[in-house]
Amino acid sequence: MVAPSAGKRPATPPIVAVVAAAGAVAIVWTYSAHFPVREWLVWRIAGYWALTLYWGTGCAALGMELLERIAPRQYRPLEALVVGFATGVIAFAAAVFAVGLVGGLGKAFFVLAPALFATAGHRALLRWCARVRPSLRDFPPRLSRFELLSLSVGVAGLLAVYVPILTPHNVQHDARWYHLPIAQQFASTGVVAKFPEGWLLGAYPHLASFLYTWAFLLPAGIVHRVELCGHLEFVIFLVTIAAVPALVRRVMPGTRVPLAWVAFFLFPGFLRYDSNLSTGADHVAALFASAGLLVLFAALRTLAVSHALLVGLMAAGALSTKYSAISVAAPLLAFIAARALLYANGTGKYRRASFALLGAAGAFVVAWAPHWLANLLWYGDPVYPMLHDHVTGRPWDMEADLYFRVFMQYAVLAPSHDLKGAFDTLFAAATLGFRAYETGFHGETPVFGFLFAATLYCVPFLRPSWRVRVAYAVGFSAVLIWYWTNHRDRYLQACLPWLVVATLCVLVPLWRSPRRAARASVLALVFAQLACGAGAYLEPSHFMIPGDHPLVQVMALVEKGHKGEYAQRFEPYKEWHFATWTDFGRRLPANARVLVHEDRLWIGLDRPVVVDEAQWQAGIRYGPLTSPAEVYDLLRRFGVTHIVTGENHSDGGDHGISGNLVFSEFVAAYAKRIVKADGLTLWQMPESRPTAATLGPALVLTCNQSQPVGLYPFAAVRARQPNVELSAKDPVPSDLVRRATYVVIEDECGFSLDEDALADFRVLSKRGRVTYYRRANVSDVP
């Protein structure tokens, strides 16, 4: 027997490969008898990824083409990918907006838009691939044990972020409320237009909703469209964290830390509701923080107009996504302005500084125009309704003004805007992560992450370069603005890339220091953070999700497949009336426009919606109306063809007793009920205008409605002037009940009524603790 030569592998007979392949086929064939291959969940997931990469390739291609035209070969390959992709995302959102203005959103746009983007930028994409190809020869690189450990943590973290996306249960409340419904509205009509009722949330910045509009054009079930939205957000997140190694190298020239992106998981707050990836807008805004810091360093170094343009573009991208991303936009623009002023004062050369300033400001104004210019033309206020004290928006009234002031006072978490508030803000930024700022979801336990503040105090002792000082200054400025404006935890996600990079500016030099004490300090900091945040992901903080965590729903999804319930995996479920709204949408004609009465979760309806929540719109007020005929006229003015009733929210405002009565009377007496399910009722508007008769008298028995107790002619309810005023302590006279067409009773107010007093009445509607009754036979009223 001859031993094989040293260093040579024995030849493998070709039959072995055939046998192994046959074994694989046998395995799949056997398993398929129990769980058909065509029903495997992996095919659905592959479809989401194929569509997402198709979209992402188009954005990256056109973005890199634009980048080459603005600043040719000024950025390294990874930097070019991040900045180019961010630029392409802005361009894609602008394309959705522009095509939507002319009513061109449809299946053709869904299919062709990414392809057209990729075609327009394919040369730039090919050149980028040629630049990257040499570096792939050494792939995969050799990793040290520490690097392997870091990579394992990073992969586990990415899986922890990704797996919850596989169920629509993961979608956060605000995304269900307006990010996705707005996309659904644009996709269902094919048009981007104003909300004529003055829906305040519809006038917010909506770059993320424009991206999700493309996903909602997918000709598939609503669950698949929501899942595609989640995958778009995840790919944006991947590009956001991919920028971290490039940023570390830019801040500390010569320093290469390919696994620097893993440091994101040292800030565990973004793994918890509602800071996690949940199809919202915060992580979309974070993309422009990563790209913005890359171009900011180039602009600060050169003060070139091209880089300044890109800074303005990224600032506009952030602020086009949401107002709270001012924590990203403002520092980007402010640092460019400061650099230009210092340069002009130091050199006396004002031309270069002026061009840089004009370039950044001009790019910002133009790129942000789909928001501010549209709002100005549609609502008369470029940031409707933020400037209501200075300009008169359309629509707007005193009631809207009151509601908005209450919202700003109680719902916005901001310090007092005085000297004390300034000190509070400074202290909060200097101790970021060491206390909880929004306790509604996570209690008093700090969850965001400690390391930005902990490393901040190491910086003065490390002789930092100007780049490191800028990195910390930008991050610190973002936190100051966040706390001063609205310090909800999730709003920190927009500027999180800056905090991660700044933290690494301390941890990396300390780890690479020859001093053991320095390396030990890094281990101590990281271990302390990991020990405190290790349970953040699995804690049941997702209380808006059945089971308190989306993983429970993902497991249920997999279980349905093994039970043979294949179709049910992708059907809307009952939570937040998802299945009911979808069923209503299937029943409606294509030209329907639905008034969603005081509700806010109508994903699946797939029809244009009119909103009448009193606090969140300014164009629909039922209180001043005196007859169902006037309700008909008002709703017809907004093109309403159908109505859904049955749900309301405590923070949605109120149309008052008279408004609730007149609306409920209109619906109950004149609208046609189509179907009732899951507490919701779908109605069709009456074919003709009701008679203009005034409603009958109302007996009001409430104690928390700022309304005197008594019997009112209907016209006097709004004026709070009863004909007969009662005391809550006295029994209600039976003759007053007999004279009333309507009785309004608030629970737990202690009013004494005979058992048979309401025998002739039927429940008209119920709003919170207040029940509205209507006499069954109105002609019986004396």
Describe the structure.
This protein is an alpha/beta fold. 52% of the residues lie in helices and 6% in strands. The chain contains 27 helices and eleven strands. A hairpin with an 8-residue loop joins strand 6 (698-701) and strand 7. Helix 7 (173-189) packs across helix 8 (207-216). The longest helix has 30 residues, at 41-70. The mean pLDDT is 92.
Question: Would you kindly provide a brief summary of this structure?
Answer:
With 782 residues, this protein is of the alpha/beta class. The protein has helices spanning 14-32, 41-70, 77-101, 107-120, 122-132, 145-162, 173-189, 207-216, 222-251, 282-302, 305-321, 326-347, 350-367, 369-379, 398-410, 419-430, 439-442, 451-456, 466-485, 496-511, 516-533, 550-562, 578-587, 628-637, 656-670, 714-717, 734-739, and strands at residues 594-596, 609-611, 642-645, 672-677, 680-684, 698-701, 710-712, 724-725, 742-746, 761-767, 770-775.
